[in-house]
Design a protein that fits this description.
387 residues; alpha/beta; five-stranded mixed sheet; 12 helices; 15 strands; elongated
Length: 387
């Protein structure tokens, strides 16, 4: 597996860590304790930091929260980000104690409604510069700038998010502030993939914070997040990540563990969704074995597919071998040829077209037949190593 590509984003320092600019993808999380409970919040921030969190985010929504944050700062070495929630004016109270300010463009309308949002961003920039803070423009599907939503059809969720993010980037650039990143989050992994790909195409220079909001309970929440990250990070998109899981407070470090595991798997090519790595040669994808695999023969079959298809190495064809009915049906849709394995039969697909069910003994000859037919429609590459 070649080194993963990385978009040429600018470097943004957040305390002791730097994202973008080719730096390692940072992993972060957020405390779930009441911010005013200083003891509990310090304990959670330190637990996340000890688990390897590069940044720990804390929500602040009142003056009392801001006062508590000042004390929390004294008791944790973590790089801290503050979520300003709905009161952007709290920035001046919390900026001295954090390394990054996160604001939601949709939330800027909740205070001082008659004041243009551009003036509010100008204020945030001045505060960030004064206190050596980075910023994140955090666009969320559930709280999009209302003026943007009115411009598009109700079923178009992504265009308002994208336009809002791009407008804020343009304004920050105009103010001479480039120490920022952007996030565009949705609870649907496919929407996260689509909107972040669109943003990265428009602004490949801006570091992206990736996440699936409201991902839910593990393991499903990890799976949803993994799919989005696989599709984006494999294309060079993403400079910092957060895995959002519904877990008890004492299990919050699991978000860091899950994030690190996903990044390691993507780097090693151990993916569960069909990822186009841009390879000019045969690309065989097989998901890791897990508790959902209904027949251990799946593992042996994946190896047999790899061996049998060696003769097609010079052809840019993707073959996916998936081990269960949970991920198999949908995640083979993007492969040229896909196999998803049930307890007794293997389902063969050509893209999204079903080709039938075959026993584990019969599947290889039929796969070879389909592969040969596919090869005849494509010319082999003159140089399989070309980029």
């Amino acid at each position: 597996m070649p080194s993963l590509p990385r978009n040429p984003t600018r470097s943004v320092r957040i305390g002791a860590v730097t994202i973008g600019g080719g730096n390692p993808i940072a992993v972060q999380s957020m405390t779930a304790t009441a911010t005013q409970d200083v003891v509990a919040t310090v304990a959670q921030a330190n637990a996340l930091n000890d688990a390897g969190a590069d940044v720990v985010r804390i929500a602040v929504d009142s003056v009392k929260d801001a006062e508590a944050l000042a004390e929390i700062r004294k008791q944790t070495p973590a790089n801290l980000s503050v979520d300003l929630q709905e009161n952007y004016r709290l920035a001046e109270r919390v900026a001295p104690y954090v390394d990054k300010l996160r604001y939601n463009p949709g939330h800027l309308y909740h205070h001082e409604r008659d004041k243009p949002w551009q003036e509010k961003v100008r204020y945030l920039v001045d505060i960030a510069k004064q206190h050596d803070c980075a910023m994140r423009v955090g666009v969320n599907c559930g709280s999009v700038d209302p003026a943007k939503k009115e411009k598009y059809a109700s079923e178009d969720k992504l265009s308002p998010m994208l336009e809002s993010a791009l407008d804020h980037c343009a304004l920050l650039d105009e103010f001479g502030f480039t120490r920022y990143c952007v996030s565009l989050k949705d609870s649907n992994p496919q929407e996260v993939i689509n909107v972040n790909r669109r943003f990265a195409e428009a602004r490949p220079d801006v570091p992206l914070h990736l996440g699936v909001t409201e991902a839910g309970l593990p393991p499903e929440g990890i799976i949803k997040t993994r799919i989005a990250f696989e599709q984006l990070i494999s294309r060079g998109i993403g400079d910092t990540i957060r895995v959002s899981l519904t877990v008890p407070n004492d299990r919050k470090p699991e978000e860091i563990v899950a994030g690190r595991a996903i990044l390691a798997d993507i780097a090693a090519g151990r993916v569960r969704s069909v990822v186009d790595y841009g390879l000019s040669t045969l690309n065989i994808i097989s998901c890791p074995s897990c508790s959902r695999v209904e027949n251990e023969a799946f593992v042996e079959l994946a190896q047999q597919v790899k061996e049998m298809t060696r003769y097609a190495a010079d052809h840019a064809i993707t073959i996916a071998v998936m081990g269960c009915r949970v991920n198999g049906p949908g995640e083979t849709d993007d492969a040229d040829l896909g196999l998803w394995c049930g307890p007794k039969y293997v389902n063969l697909k050509k893209r999204s077209t079903e080709l039938g069910q075959f026993t584990y003994d019969d599947i290889l000859p039929r796969l070879k037949s389909e592969l040969d037919a596919l090869i005849t429609t494509r010319q082999p590459l003159a140089n399989p190593l070309r980029q």
